[in-house]
Amino acid sequence: MSLPEKRNSGSGQSPSDDEKQVGDEKPGHIDLPSDPDANLSPEEKAKIDRRLLWKLDLRLIPWLCLLYLISFLDRSNIGNARLVGLEDSLSITSGQYNAALTIFFISYSLSEPLTNILLKRLRPSIFIPGIMVAWGIVMTTMGLCHNFEGLMTARFFLGLAEAGLFPGITYYLSCWYRRNEFGIRSAIFFSAAAVSGSFGGLLAAAIGEMDGIGGKRGWSWIFIIEGIATVLIGIASFWMVFDFPDEATFLSDVDRQRVLRRLKADQQSSAEHEEFRMEYFWASVKDWKTWLFAVIYMGCDGPLYAFSLFLPTIIRGLGYSGTTAQLLSVPPYAVAAILTISIGYLADRTRQRGLCNMGVSVLGIVGFAMLISAASPGVQYAGTFLGALGIYPCISNTITWVSNNTEGVYKRGVTMGIVIGWGNLNGVVSSNIYQESDRSTGYRTGHSIVFAYLFVFLLGGSALQYMLLKKENAKRRAGKLDHLYEGRSEKEVEALGDIRPGFYYTL
């Protein structure tokens, strides 16, 4: 029996020759699928690989970005609807409005850990379009609500239907790309959330002008029009969303073989079919990295929802209202989208995702410190820019960090579901920290809670995870885990996933 590989970089260094190098050192034997380009030169292989990667990007990324833009728009447009009469029309209090925000996150977060298992079993081409049509219908009915009870019911089912999209698509993309290719694409995908904030303000300002048409208020039309658009895009997604690499219909047999080979060369189990067993679920639950990543993610996801749901309210608190407040919410999202993509690129190249998290989080901490302490509306508005810059890039970077350091098809899916689900459960907190009674103080309580999330959970958690992963890598370099090779075949060692001695964590 040949000795299993002694080292594999979890950072996912992209090798120039995937048969000779994986990670940062030569492995032993890797059982790669047959090479359809075996007779070509390295230069010709590289050209084919670039063309294949471009083909994947064009087929996968743009449409998935559109789906997430729609998803984030539909969950956060209630903040825009609030500015055009939602509370007055339904005769609800500020506390009831916050309750409507909260109930979304309860159904949303509790459903997420299991959605990736459903995605794998039902196939992406069925699961993703199906949930889109469902939440589009729910969104449309929100525009028909006449009371608080109707709004609560619609928000609950909206969270239930939307729960599978973000963890599902991030997991899905991680099964297509090498580790050092995933960060920038995850960042581009998540930048759709920032774009949706920017686009949502503009769209809400336009739709709000329909106030009175058909006997309905402007806030009703926001929900109805955006809901119908979601249903139509969901129907189109039955033809635009593809299955996993081993079954994707847009690939030729040769290209499919190339995709599986490059994933296998990156030592990803996602390159292979894997039957679900409960041991994969428990492997995720028992892994300390799962829960520390969940803490880090709550440090950026809690602030994300506080920011996206209440930015129009925060701007209103600076003395602006109506269309002006909607339009002033656009620029912070635009600059956040640019930095999100830039950090994705930088983290892929440096393989220092923890340091990127720490550096970016400082921007958010400074921004919310400005919102807490400054009296000038201009300084506070500048603080919203830094707040957005400190939050949005960390979402995609953290999810990529999780994916890079979790191996195994189902373990990765469950881990991402737990991390994202826990992060989104903190939307319950985010929904209740900006109280109308605090408007006279400039929402200082809400800003202080977001500041604490960024400082303790995002910055502190990222620093702790960075140090612990660095310590784990040092143990592997010193050969302290080599006893796990004993008595195991190569296949059995590979089945150990990210705990095998040859797997090195991305810092």
Task: Pick out its properties.
507 residues, mainly alpha, two-stranded parallel sheet
Overview of the molecule:
This protein is mainly alpha-helical. The chain is built from 19 helices and two strands. Strands 1-2 form a two-stranded parallel sheet. The radius of gyration is 23 Å and the shape is globular. The two termini are 33 Å apart.
The biggest sheet amounts to: 2 strands, parallel
Strands across the major sheet, in which order?
1-2
Helix share, percent = over 70%
The Rg value, from CA coordinates, equals 23 Å
- Bin the strand percentage: under 5%
Instruction: Calculate the terminal CA-CA distance, rounded to whole Å.
Output: 33 Å
Number of separate helices? 19
Mean pLDDT: 82
Inertia-based shape: globular
Q: Find the structural class using helix and strand composition.
A: mainly alpha
Uncertain parts: 1-29
| Element string (H = helix, E = strand) | EHHHHHHHHHHHHHHHHHHHE
Q: Care to count the β-strands?
A: 2
